[in-house]
Automatic annotation (TrEMBL):
Domain of life: Bacteria
Species in which this protein is naturally found: Pontibacter ruber
Domain DDH: 17-168
InterPro entries: DDH_dom, DHH_sf, DHHA1_dom, Oligoribo/pAp-PDE_c-di-AMP_PDE
Designated name of the protein: Bifunctional oligoribonuclease/PAP phosphatase NrnA
Length: 340
């Protein structure tokens, strides 16, 4: 759904604009937000980016990062004021206001025009305007397309391009997921053309681990990986104490789930982590098995067919037991996903 004409009209005059994205922003969430912010600033709008929580250090290089406001209890009043005073509120890379914690209610009640730019399945209908496409590989791809559709392709500079590249690169798994379309490659060709240093961005995101993060990965793979060949499933469950022992920082567990999925014959992988306030889960699959449906039905979550997340307020052991107990009912579906 692309309300581009209404968006053009909305943004004709300089406006007070706020951009937000999901809890614990990843490279697509932050990259699409900062890419859009860079563009709208060039168009003369006043733009504030607010994230509902902190995000990994390996994203801090992005142009515009220095102006991001990270919501916390301490700046609640300031954030409420900005939301109330914004004429346009962009919501990027999430489909449900519950994904942005306290800020969700503030935005639901805000007077400004809400614009959703997103590629997740089953979007909640809270926005006034939508620029969403569930086939898009990344929200950053949609932001690129949106800027072009606004007739402003020539405003995409290397700063904007670097942010968008980061989002597309990570959400496509470095251009290997089936979502990596011709459009994606054409966008990347254009970003290379304008001078975006793509290999440097890859290094900044993927080759910036601390020693402890790598040792944690080693520990998780050696001692915590559970492989269930009967269900073509592998998972890793991590306790709060283990996170503490390895001084785990925001983003340190990102990518862990992909190692479980990289085993031959495994089509369903999960990482289940006790984050103290709640147990958070990351799900990945290959083939037809929908982790979006799995997360929605059993763990208050959602996402995409092959990448989704969920949460539970039960203790870690109970969540793991529930996860294992669900597998038999999917046995056939999981077997059918092999070799797809
Ligand atoms: P990740 O496992 O990388 O945190 O998330 C994978 C995908 O699932 C992302 O597209 C993310 O937005 C979505 N996702 C993660 N956690 C949740 C959740 O609790 N609820 C919903 N609806 N989506 C989630
Ligand atoms: Mn995304």
């Amino acid at each position: 759904m692309h309300d581009i004409n209404a968006l053009k009209e909305l943004l004709q005059e300089p406006k007070e604009v706020m951009i937000t994205t999901h809890h614990k922003p990843d490279a697509d969430a932050l990259g699409s937000s900062l890419g859009l912010a860079g563009y709208l600033k060039k168009k003369g709008h006043r733009v504030t980016v607010i994230t509902p929580s902190d995000y990994p250090n390996f994203l801090a290089w992005m142009p515009g990062n220095e102006d991001v406001i990270v919501y916390s209890d301490n700046n609640d009043a300031l954030v409420q004021r900005i939301i109330n005073e914004s004429q346009v509120i962009f919501c990027l890379d999430f489909n449900n206001l519950s994904r942005i914690n306290e800020m969700g209610e503030y935005i639901r009640q805000a007077k400004g025009t809400k614009v959703l730019v997103d590629h997740h399945l089953q979007p909640e209908s809270f926005a006034d305007l939508n620029y969403s496409n569930t086939n898009a590989a990344a929200t950053a791809e949609l932001v690129y397309d949106l800027i072009k559709a606004m007739g402003d392709g020539d405003l995409i500079d290397t700063n904007i391009g670097e942010c968008l590249y980061a989002g597309i690169m990570t959400d496509t798994g470095s251009f290997r997921h089936p979502s990596t379309s011709k459009n994606v490659h054409l966008i990347i060709a254009d970003l290379l053309h304008i001078g975006v240093n793509t290999s440097n961005i890859h290094r900044l995101i993927y080759d910036s681990s601390s020693e402890l993060r790598l040792r944690f990965l080693g520990y998780a793979l050696k001692d915590k990986l559970v492989v269930l060949p009967e269900y073509h499933t592998a998972y890793i469950a991590i306790t709060a104490d283990e996170l503490k022992a390895y001084d785990s920082k925001t983003g340190d567990t990102e990518g862990l789930v992909n190692f479980a999925l990289s085993i031959e014959g495994i089509v369903f992988a999960a990482v289940i982590i006790d984050r103290t306030q709640a147990v958070k889960m990351s799900f990945r699959s290959v083939g037809d098995f929908s982790v979006n449906e799995f997360a929605r039905q059993h763990f208050n979550g959602g996402g995409h067919r092959n990448a989704a997340g969920g949460m539970s307020l039960e203790p870690l052991d109970a969540v793991v037991a529930k996860f294992e107990s669900l597998l038999p009912q999917y046995k056939e579906q999981l077997a059918n996903s092999v070799n797809k």
